[in-house]
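Table S7 (text form). Paired inputs.
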Amino acid sequence: MPPKAKKLVRKKAKPDYQTTEADLQAFGGVKVGQLVRNALGCTGSVLGVKSAPAGGPSHLWVRYDSGLEAPIDAESLQPCDPVDQLRREIKERQQEERVLDGQWANYNAEQQRKEEEAQRAAARRRQKAAAAAAAAAAEQAGAEGQQRGRSREVKAVSTAASLAGRSKQAAAA
């Protein structure tokens, strides 16, 4: 008997965070993105409120600096100083600047590579044109040389004939 096909079990979608001020008011009026500290001193950023299924209690969720997302107890919730919030914003902006600087560096390197490639292509075209001109000049010089050679041969033959004719005249006289 062939094996039975397995049933696909779909995972339940996680409920989205509720981020309205009314939902967050129950937790001391914190705002999304605000830095808070738990009883152990770990700092995290507020994500929002998740309600438990079947009307259970809701929990405030925080993303800690390590990347972990976890609920935080309302009793242990302490807002961080505005100085900490400012430091975090500065750090985020510096990170964004580093990313943009890297993107600009990549863009500039690509533009420089394209420019160098265009210069090499132009140099190759100039070399081909110069080689073609040199070949044409050599061909023309060769043709002129052949023409000169023929005219020299004709002159030599005519000179020899005229000398022969003079020698006959001198012998006859």
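Next pair, protein 2 of 2.
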Amino acid sequence: MKSATFTKLTRTALAGMMACSMALTAVAATVSTGGVMVRAAENKTVEKTTIELHKKAIYDNTTKENTGSSITYFDNLDPVSGVTFTPYNVTQWVQDNTAKYLSAENAVEYLTANWNQMKVELAGQQLSSEVTADKTGIATFKLPSRTLLTNGQYRNSIYLFEETASAHDDSFMRAAPMVVGLSTELKALDKVIVYPKNVGLEKDLYVNNTIMDDFGAYSFEVGQQLTYKSTMTVPENILHRYEDSDENEQYTYQYLSFLDVMTQAGTDFGGVTSIATTDAPLVNLLDEFNQFGSAVTSNDAAWADTLEGLSNFNADPHAGFYYNFDLGANELTEDVEALLGRITGKTLTFTYTVTINEEAEEHQDIGNNFYVRYHNGQSDFTVSDDAPVIETSGHDFTKISSADDKVKLAGAEFVLSRNLNGTTEYAKFNYDAGNGPDSGEYAPSSITWYTGRDS
């Protein structure tokens, strides 16, 4: 079981929680992929504590920790509405299991790592759900600050929040279960603010090292190379395990895959040139992904069958690539597990190229989609983002009689030129065998531009 990350504040509070053998005063909270902890304070003037979950559009593996108070960095991000959180009162369970797992920290780690199984046992502790509101992305809970235990004593409450539904499953990965414990040892707060962290995808198109940031990129020609960069953050709990009914350890996640497909024919896949973490210095994991990630590209004979075999997915086998890590079989090699350990909680950028080929039609819109597919132990999810659609250029030339525009004249030759930054350049069409004018076909594989007309 992977350890959660405890802040200094949390460790200080936990250090004093066992003044009596079972006198629980506080517990930490794991927040999504970042594994950050928050300790909330009980307001002594009220019987209930207000807990606000602020859902934000996050696209990187920020390590900023929840403090229970407002954090400017998160407040400046766009809110995400329509996300449902369901709380569970887990105070009694943590109280009963602190000795079994040797500490409250270990008990909470076990609870969150095995939540898919433990939620059945704790179904009776489920409370009313709330949905993040429009414009604010905030879900507000007013929950009892203290809980009456079976031994007749009151203890400061401990709540687990699960993201149980979302209107944005196709855009953002869901947050992991998050625990918030209330503590009288901390300064009283009127309300507790927590930022459940999940992340979305970002995809950009680059041409000649320039980002195309609008959705109207025009006049692309045959032979022109396009560079795409897709960014996502790997879940912090991707390697979490749980104990099954036979007390065998199993991975919670069943698989994690990365898929990219062009929307139309007319491009050749050049290759993935980099899979890099955003940490400094950058670490390129391309070789490891190619070796251990069951790599398949549209240049491979198995490409069409690979796409056809994906569940709940439908796309034509145009240019693209696919990496997949199968955890469900519980047979990861040491090398694969080591690679997943290196990318756990990390933000990855996939860089890859395609080239417009002779199959592209004039004035054709060609898009590109990047998908992250995973099964979190409960359901299959597909999160995706697209890049600006490109439009191919194209020109038709017809020689007609000056006396009668209905009369078309044969044998004409045309010179195609363009003015680029004040310089006139002339086109030379390059043809593959069998696609040139001698064969009656005019499908160039690329265009070379020269400054001299007779080049």
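Residues 1-46 have pLDDT under 50 and may be disordered.
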